[in-house]
Amino acid sequence: MAVLKVTFTKTKRDKLAQVLWILNWISVVTGVILLSLGLFLKVELNKRQELMADRDIQYVPNMLISVGLIACAINFLGGKICYDCVDTAKFLRWKLIMLPYIVCTFFFTFCVLVGALMCYTMHWELDESLKEGLTQAMRFYKDTDTPGRCFLKRAVDKLQIEFQCCGNKAYKDWFKIQWISNRYLDMSHREVVDRLRSNVEGKYLMDGVPFSCCNINSPRPCIQQQITNNSAHFSYDHHTEALNLWTRGCHQALLDYYTGIMHSIGLTVLITWLFELSVLTGVRYLQTSLENVLRHGDPNSESDGWLLENSFIETARTNLNIIKTLSKNNHVDTANNGDPNINIPSTVKAHYGPDNVPPQQIPVAS
Q: Looking only at Cα atoms, what is the longest distance across the chain?
């Protein structure tokens, strides 16, 4: 029994082919959109690549770029096929190609669905990449004279100003690392020497943050040093001066930013998948209805179209039998040293006589 069988007249088949021709060209545009989204995401990730750990997070934009290019090619071919299928006679040139085209397009739409799901699952890898990358960037913030690290100070400051954040998780993360280079420390000052000696690793730690952590909305001048020392500043309490510094960590700020982008792209790709699936369904109906027209021999007659000629169970059983048949045909008998050309003698011997010689046949009289 056919699955979702629909009867088409000549007029309905022609209209279906025309509509599918238009939809395939729209799908070419959606392929360009997927390609553009992949390029956009790739550029956004590369903008702050130095603030991320070396993890494979480029697979999502690469997947979108590949899917976009394939969508343009497949739907361009689909538009040409549907345009020719308006004429039943022209369908003959595509008859042998349409079924492989539909199968390939089906697997392609599955890849589009996988791309949509990858946009949502990328959150976890991006989380770990940002956590490790920001920690390393803050640790090398002071190394402005070291080749390969001299750009990190500018990158971190630009990040904290642009996203209005401070530190990795919070501004107190700066208290745990030395973010001021030794070249800017006055070694003749006793307080500086005491701080260096008091630390096991010989680092200059203090309760201060870079200027880029300052909240521009603060009603008072920004306090960057001795943040936890209330007596060092007039009318100051670090517990209540929440507006003095950005309170949100840059890890969460960047993660929210990229998650918003990924969710928007994922929704777009999911809508594209549904659109591609509907176009593929229409092409399948067009193919089966035109093949039934050829069986009838009358191009103006009604014909049935379906998604599957048999039920799902019967189709699966048929495909399984085909796979088993192919595996049996490719099987090589390992008997007789693996040579399949050697005839295997029968295990049952004919008892012709003591010498096992067959007797001569007696001619039959006519």
A: 138
